[in-house]
Fold this protein.
Amino acid sequence: MASAEEKNIMHRRRVTDSKLSSVTDSRLGPMPRPLGLFSTLTHAFVAAVARLDKRTSPLVNLARLQNHLFQPYDVLYLAHLFLASFWLALMEFPPYPYKLIIPLLYTIFLIVPVTSQFFLPAVPIATYLLAFYSSRFISPAYRPPVSVSLLPTLETVLYGANISDILTRFTHPVLDIIAWIPYGVGHFTLPFIVALFLWLFRSKPVLHFWGSAFGYLNLVGVLTQLIFPCSPPWYELLYGLTPANYGMPGSPGGLARIDALFHSSGYTTAFSNSPLVFGAFPSLHAACGTMEALFISHFFPQYSTFVWSYVAVLYWSTMYLTHHYLIDVVCGACLATVFFYFFLPDELKGPAAFLPPHNFTLLAPNAYNSLPLHMGKSRNKYALYDLDDPRVGMSHGAAAAASAAAAASASDEDYYEDEYEHDSASSSTGGGHRLDDAVPPHSAAPLLAGGASPPQKAKRAGSRKHGVRGGAGGKGHRHTASIASLIRGEDRSEEDGWSPVADRFVLAPAPGAAAKVI
């Protein structure tokens, strides 16, 4: 059972914490109120725009390229150049020479600093989009045969039944809407939303990581669908297991009910002219949704429950709308997981994953008090005392280490503030230790004639038992030792005893004897 003194310390610590979060500081004036969601988004956008490189001279990027130290991974850009040339050569619309506008514009975007900061990290995504669009122009003579029965057979063998067929037996307009939102809307909009929030609330390496992982995932997925074409469930419903050919049009599957519900033909037109009619395996809808969930749960873990619930509905919708088998969904999710952890850099693991952009907390120091896009609330001592934040300009990992050290320092400061308040209150009420009753540490025992008296020994034992300041091994002398070590040995008298600098120890003289130096 806790003693009355421990309960008093805990009570005062709770009072101190509540003061830090809700009460004004008499020295600094009223503490700022937490920003609302709209104000936080506005501050984040202003800070993000301020971080942009707004230069438009191509000479800046050419100088960067000239001074760049090429690494082995730079070979990937040569691979992108080869793939882009290949897909551009296959492209029949727009015809030559109009299609040369595409590489011309992209080259301009890469050499201008204000645009290259967006388009250079998006090179894998651009290569994926080019491959997806130009794949329709591959001659059927060079394409592998379409597999019609493999996926339903594997699903029956692995899962005991054709799960996708079971999920499509009962349909309802309400279920159609629920399935349409993630499959027909979220799949095309959520990647931009995730990228936007990463740009606003996380550092630049996080956005680069998103471009690489998301782009290479889709690029590998499209290449897999081209090498291993498989028919989706809607083909089995329309044509059975008859052989397929590349001249067959695509089908919107269950999304045709959405077109009928909204009296439109958008999905019917889009899927009928799809470049990859037989791109069922793996499911890029499931892969993209999993990648988005992994990013949000890693960098904004407080939203993990919501995003994984969304992805679960997306998994179901891919089968309910007759576009994928269960094995397609499983392989797409596994592929996304592999790419996420393969491209995840070490500097974005641990606390560094939650660091905001360096100038966001400087422009809006209290923004994270209300926005649930951070990991906990903490005092920024640099903003509190109007000091320059030394973490600005650091690398990502170094800034994370500095933030962790600052948090540990803040916790120690809170501890000593609580202990100081408790000692002050005890002294004012007469219930605390007087200066005359201070318990000396063990290091002072040789200086005391005859050692510590029995009352002092009992008092020191009680201090160690209950964690009161002044006990040996407690936190009470942490600062005392560090301050004493800064005092020069020649400034200390011999009566002070041992000096950490003067490498000598003076024993207090016994009655009638001279002092002894060791």
Notes: The chain has 22 helices and two strands. The radius of gyration is 34 Å.
